[in-house]
Structure formats: structure tokens, C-alpha cells
Amino acid sequence: MREGLARIGRVRAVINITAIACLSSVLLSSLIWSQAFGREIDWQLISTASVVPALICPFVMWFVIQMTLDLHHMENKMRYLASYDDLTELLSRRAFLTSSQKLFSLMNRSHKPFSIAYIDIDDFKKINDSYGHAAGDEVLKSFSVILEVHTRSSDLVGRIGGEEFAIALPDTGAHGAARVVELIREVSEQQMLTTSSKATLSYTISIGISTSDSNKTQTLEQLIQQADRALYEAKVAGKNRIIQFETETHFT
């Protein structure tokens, strides 16, 4: 019902409901008038029966429909906030994991490769300490735009927490995943960001990749753990690089 009201709009809904109320009042009054009093239906009866709903119904229904639409919009907003990160507008951690699981299962059934990339902005705490948390938020938003621009429509991109992000790459092997994230790493490294406070800063990222093995039975959770481990190794190895879990080969 709420979806229907949202589609037709408040004004049209009030007009339609008022018309229905008037018609119902006329029909009911006519039935009572003829059955109880044995009187014929005339224009005076029709006018009287339609005046009250015509006067009252628009005001009542305007209020009721507004409350209904407000509730509908609030529910939509709550669903959006549950699925998307408020700052970056990327998928939230929960939504990313849920959608990735469906995609991973589909790739498994189709015997196609599936890769997960875990990404961390290097020295993000220093950015916050040096330029302030507002600048840190601008870095996160700037990087989220890079992710959206340089990933494919079939990929899933989410903010996992803090300065950590993840990409799910369906039908993509290790080398294909490396190509996608290497471009993201290069663009991030070359970008000079001017914040709203007029500070100019740059940043780098570290990335860990894990790819499903058709010869092994794996779960999405295992792939994520492997990508997270590869990300840790990229940090230890000096940051601003990519490490793939399977071979621990890095691309700089």
C-alpha cells in the first residue's frame, strides 16, 4: 500500500480516496434511505450524502497519507543505511558480505574463478593526526570514488571498516584481479587531494588478493581471511604494494 501511495503521490491519492468516500457515502445513504424509509432517491439526498465526506475526507486523508508516506520514506532510508556506508556510499560490511556470498556461490556452481581484494589506506592515522578527521573523511570519500570509477559493473565494492575496503571480483582469476587493483593503486598514488581546508595531501594503498582454487573446496570466509593475510604481508613488506595470497607475489 505504501509503495502504491508513493507512486501516485499524495495529491492524487487524496483526490481518489475522497471520490471513493463520496461515492460510498451516496450508495450507503441511498440504501438506508430506500430500505428504512421507503423513500425514493433524489438529488437532495445525493447532495447531502456527498457533502460531508467531500468536506472532511480531504483533510483527514491528507494527514493520514502524509504519515504513511513519511513512514515509507523512513523505512527506505533505514534500508539504505543498513546496506550502504553513510560516508562513502559504498556497500556496508554486512551488505558486502551478503552479496559476495551469493556471487561466490554462483561462481562455484558455474566453476568460475572468484577473487577478493582487501585494501587499506596506508598511514591513515597519520593523515587524521596531521590534517584532522575532516580531511581523513575526504580521503575516504575520494578513494571511494576511485574504487567506483575503476572497478567493473560486475564487481562489488564495500567499505569494511575504518580505512579498509574490499572488492569482490566474479569470474576473475589472480592475474585479472591484479590488473584491476594495480590500476587502482596507481591512480591512488598519483592523486593529489586538496581538502576543504586547502591542505594538499597524497596517500598510498596496500592490497591483499585471494582467488578461489577450483581444485579445492573453499568458503568465502576462507578467501576473505587469505586476502586479509595477504594485506598484512603487503603492510609488512613496505606498503604501497599488492600481494597475492597464493604465491605471495607482489606488484609495485
TrEMBL record:
Q: Which residues cross the membrane?
A: 12-33, 45-69
Superkingdom of origin: Bacteria
SUPFAM superfamilies the record matches: Nucleotide cyclase
Names of required cofactors:
Mg(2+)
Instruction: Give residue ranges for domain GGDEF.
Output: 112-247
Q: Which organism is it from?
A: Methylophaga thiooxydans DMS010
The alphabetized UniProt keywords are: Membrane, Transmembrane, Transmembrane helix
Q: Which reaction is recorded as catalysed by this protein?
A: 2 GTP = 3',3'-c-di-GMP + 2 diphosphate
Picking any one GO molecular function of the record gives: diguanylate cyclase activity
Question: Which Enzyme Commission number(s) are on file for it?
Answer: 2.7.7.65
- UniProt-recorded name of the protein: diguanylate cyclase
Q: Does the keyword Transmembrane helix apply?
A: yes
> Known InterPro entries for this protein?
Diguanylate_Cyclase, GGDEF_dom, Nucleotide_cyclase, Rev_trsase/Diguanyl_cyclase
Q: Which CDD domains match?
A: GGDEF
